[in-house]
Every structure is written in C-alpha cells, then in structure tokens.
C-alpha cells in the first residue's frame, strides 16, 4: 500500500505545529513559575484595593452588611 507524499507531508506539518505550540506553552509556564512572589503579591494587593474602591462594589458591600 502506497502512502501519498502529500498526505504524509501534511501530517508532518500538523505534528510540527503541535510541537511548536507545546513548546510555546511550556515556555509560558516556566516564565509564570519564575515570577517573583512579592511582585505578584503587590499586583494582587493593588487589584484588591482598586476593587474595594469601586463604587458598585462598595454599594454591594453596604447592602450585604445590612442583611
């Protein structure tokens, strides 16, 4: 049984694309794991602070505190 070379080339290209995507994902995971925890904590604290300063969030907190 003869396999057409065009079919094989397409499969090889598909596999190469998947391998490239996997290596890109692995690099992203490595970079995320190398983030300094203090920077991450500062970012989280800033996000929480902005959230608490939001008027809609403040109204919701007030409503919930009355219940």
Q: How does this model look, in words?
A:
By secondary structure, the chain is mainly α. The chain is 87% helix and 0% strand. The model has no long low-confidence stretch (mean pLDDT 81).
The number of helical segments is: 3
For the record, the count of structural domains works out to: 2
| Structural shape | elongated
SSE run:
HHH
Helix content: over 70%
User: Largest sheet, if any?
Assistant: none
Q: What is the radius of gyration?
A: 25 Å
Strand content: under 5%
Quote the distance from N terminus to C terminus: 75 Å
Mean pLDDT: 81
SS-based class: mainly alpha
Number of strands: 0
Spans of at least 5 consecutive residues with low confidence: none
In a few lines, what is going on in this structure?
The chain is an all-alpha fold and 67 residues long. It is 87% helix and 0% strand. The protein has helices at 5-33, 37-53, 55-66.
């Amino acid at each position: 049984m003869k396999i057409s070379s065009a079919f094989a080339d397409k499969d090889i290209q598909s596999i190469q694309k998947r391998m490239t995507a996997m290596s890109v994902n692995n690099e992203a995971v490595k970079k995320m794991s190398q983030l300094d925890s203090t920077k991450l904590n500062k970012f989280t604290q800033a996000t929480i602070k902005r959230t608490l300063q939001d008027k809609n969030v403040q109204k919701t907190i007030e409503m919930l505190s009355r219940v």
